[in-house]
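User: Structure with adenosine-5'-triphosphate, tokens only please.
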Amino acid sequence: MAYSRIKEELESNKQEFTYAEVLTMTKNLERVVGKGGFATVYYGRIDDTEVAVKMLSPSAQGYLQFKAEAKFVAVVHHKFLTSLIGYCDDGEKMALIYEYMANGDFSKHLSGIF
Ligand SMILES: Nc1ncnc2c1ncn2[C@@H]1O[C@H](COP(=O)(O)OP(=O)(O)OP(=O)(O)O)[C@@H](O)[C@H]1O
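Assistant:
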């Protein structure tokens, strides 16, 4: 699937946020909840909804993995997957915004299922 198609999929189904909005929802990236191979995850709130904001680390490899994840979550809908609320694609700043899961990331949830 081409990146333009992935973007189309995201744009039609998910909310787009500016980087300024990401800073507002995370209180200027105040609380780090985790770190993955290509992103740092921050705690945030959009009104009453708790969110996990996964900010892409600035690296080419990270960019590829980020695109792969965006493609995956945009296409696959499964009740056990963390739900994607929206994304930020604002110049150099890219983020995926998920529902916050108090009990950790979805791989921990999956390990209880399989
Ligand atoms: N939706 C979420 N709600 C709460 N915490 C989260 C959420 N998503 C990720 N985290 C936290 O951030 C950490 C990093 O997540 P991330 O998805 O970036 O990396 P990973 O799955 O651990 O590894 P990889 O980068 O290889 O995919 C997780 O281990 C978890 O603690």
